[in-house]
Backbone:
């Protein structure tokens, strides 16, 4: 508590370092992993030793060595460079497929929970319909109608991924809307929009943020999976799932083509999950501190 | 509720002598599948400009519901305002649109709640919450709002507001938070403040300070106040006029002195008799029985079951508030029995 009493009067950097000192270990490790991956993705043109599309048939299927840290694939492309550039694609798709639906999912759910009545009923029934189909099956159906490709992945995911966020936000709002400070805000003559988004939202969004980390992992796996099936990112783009698929035919001669991008995928997933767990813990602590 | 005379007066309300708030026959129900609970059964109440009206009554007598109905803050469903009018500054609040109502809430008619610890948003600095209304309803810029916010905090007795302005609610004590809540309410220079048990959640020494602050602010700004409490001592200290509520009805309205000296309703007599006094060590009197269930409609007086003066008529004659003496109204059919029994 003592760290808080002077919090308002100190520098932002000091406040950040104080906050980070309170982070649970899982959050620190997860943040480290995800941070490293993101930075590596941003700096890919600087770090990558080769062009990710550069083919060198004299150096095809070279196992990991000093020149090619993760080896080369059947076209002689440097896998390390491709994995680095793959961060950009996978993280970007993962980010957008997680946070775009989160924005309107939370907004819809919060509004439904706050207003109740017919609006709530309509939102919840639409949501039930979207949730009635298994997620992956629905995505594959939409993709096979619209055709493969990144843009269609976005469309398909945006249609169904908001449902969990709407559920979470609505459930939290049902509790929150009966609290005194919401009543007080209404008594002060604020509009519903202001009450929902400015007053209630900061208090109900934690669970959605925690869930978004797990969702992020699933979405990266989803995109990789779809690309593996040929429904997502198309070759020669350096996407992890597509790379894993490409290495399938050579798995016995050149294990590194599929395995090493796969390991990076696992690492990214683990990092994001750790961040999610850590955030859940940290939010829990803060809740306790407030009570 | 200076009652029948005014209630029959259908002339347009002249701005000068009309009461600031005029609640007429307000009925608020809560509906569930199994029952309808009538929390306010035809409540009439008038608040003159610049005065304090105290509302007393035990838990469940409809005091808070009345305040919330006036501001239309009850969630509907289950709550429903089934009848009545709420005139405030020349308009019937029950007929206003959502935006107009928000404007009234934000500027002229303010309310503060029982528990200051929970009536502020935990995630925003207190200063921001005090100035939000100024920015929303009065269009003040950030800087001007902050200046005014600091002034307000000063006014409600927060020492060195500059250094506490950016604190979060959990950093303040309950008494300080209630001061902040009052500052928020005063931000719009309201003409009427509804205070719903503003001191109940605070300890006794702080209670006195907050009441003194409210009285002081009221004298300075000439606003009217409705002070809800279940504590007769609080009402006696602060109010000009007292309304006694029981089972969702107003049983008696009187100037504060008259009510304490010459109560004209048996329930008020019982309430006064059950208040501890420092001078005596006698056993406290209590009112026998329980308040009636609000889901059963009674024809007669709702207090008849527990009233020692009740006769057959009390059980089956509808009661309304009638003016007995000047400004003193009671819903009792036989107020003369009180005196005769030598209460």
Residues:
């Amino acid at each position: 508590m003592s760290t808080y009493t002077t919090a308002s009067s100190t520098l932002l950097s000091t406040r950040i370092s104080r906050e980070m000192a309170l982070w649970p270990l899982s959050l620190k490790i997860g943040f480290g992993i995800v941070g490293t991956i993101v930075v590596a993705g941003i700096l890919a043109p600087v770090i990558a030793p080769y062009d990710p599309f550069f083919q060198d048939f004299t150096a095809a299927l070279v196992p990991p060595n000093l020149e090619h840290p993760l080896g080369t694939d059947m076209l002689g492309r440097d896998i390390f460079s491709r994995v680095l550039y793959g961060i950009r694609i996978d993280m970007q798709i993962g980010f957008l497929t997680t946070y775009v639906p989160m924005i309107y999912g939370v907004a819809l759910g919060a509004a439904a929970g706050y207003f109740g009545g017919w609006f709530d009923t309509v939102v919840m029934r639409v949501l039930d319909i979207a949730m009635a189909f298994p997620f992956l099956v629905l995505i594959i159906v939409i993709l096979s109608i619209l055709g493969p490709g990144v843009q269609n992945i976005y469309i398909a995911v945006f249609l169904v991924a908001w449902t969990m966020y709407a559920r979470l936000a609505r459930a939290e709002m049902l509790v929150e809307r009966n609290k005194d400070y919401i009543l007080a805000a209404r008594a002060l003559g604020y509009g519903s929009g202001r009450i929902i988004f400015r007053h209630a939202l900061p208090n109900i969004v934690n669970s959605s943020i925690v869930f978004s980390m797990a969702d992020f992992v699933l979405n990266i796996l989803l995109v990789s999976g779809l690309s593996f099936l040929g429904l997502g990112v198309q070759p020669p783009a350096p996407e992890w799932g597509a790379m894993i698929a490409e290495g399938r035919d050579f798995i016995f001669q050149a294990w590194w083509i599929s395995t090493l991008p796969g390991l990076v995928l696992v690492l990214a997933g683990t990092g994001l999950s750790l961040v999610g767990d850590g955030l859940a813990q940290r939010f829990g602590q803060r809740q306790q501190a407030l009570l | 509720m200076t009652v029948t005379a005014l209630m029959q007066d259908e002339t347009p309300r002249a701005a000068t002598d009309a009461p600031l708030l005029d609640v007429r026959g307000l009925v608020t129900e809560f509906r569930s599948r199994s029952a309808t609970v009538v929390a306010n059964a035809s409540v009439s109440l008038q608040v003159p400009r610049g005065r304090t009206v105290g509302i007393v009554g035990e838990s469940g007598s409809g005091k808070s519901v009345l305040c919330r109905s006036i501001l239309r803050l009850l969630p509907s469903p289950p709550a429903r305002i089934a009848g009545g009018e709420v005139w405030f500054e020349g308009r019937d609040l029950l007929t206003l649109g959502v935006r107009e109502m928000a404007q009234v809430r934000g500027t002229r008619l303010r309310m503060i709640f029982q528990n200051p610890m929970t009536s502020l948003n935990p995630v925003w600095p207190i200063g921001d919450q005090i100035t939000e209304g100024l920015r929303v309803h009065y269009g003040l810029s950030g800087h001007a709002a902050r200046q005014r916010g600091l002034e307000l905090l000063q006014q409600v007795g927060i020492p060195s507001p500059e250094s506490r302005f950016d604190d979060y609610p959990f950093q303040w004590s309950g008494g300080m938070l209630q001061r902040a809540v009052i500052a928020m309410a005063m931000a719009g220079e309201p003409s009427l403040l509804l205070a719903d048990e503003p001191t109940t959640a605070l300890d006794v020494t702080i209670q006195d300070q907050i009441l003194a602050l409210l009285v002081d602010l009221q004298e300075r700004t000439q606003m009217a106040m409705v002070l809800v409490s279940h504590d007769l001592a609080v009402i006696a200290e602060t109010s000009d006029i007292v309304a006694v509520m029981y089972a969702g009805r107003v049983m008696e309205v009187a100037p504060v002195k008259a009510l304490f000296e010459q109560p004209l309703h048996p329930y008020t007599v019982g309430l006064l008799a059950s208040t501890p006094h420092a001078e005596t060590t006698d056993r406290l009197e209590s009112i026998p029985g329980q308040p009636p269930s609000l889901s059963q409609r009674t024809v007669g007086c709702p207090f008849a079951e527990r009233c020692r003066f009740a006769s057959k008529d009390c059980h089956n004659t509808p009661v309304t508030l009638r003016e007995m003496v000047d400004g003193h109204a009671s819903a009792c059919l036989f107020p003369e029995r009180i005196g005769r029994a030598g209460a």
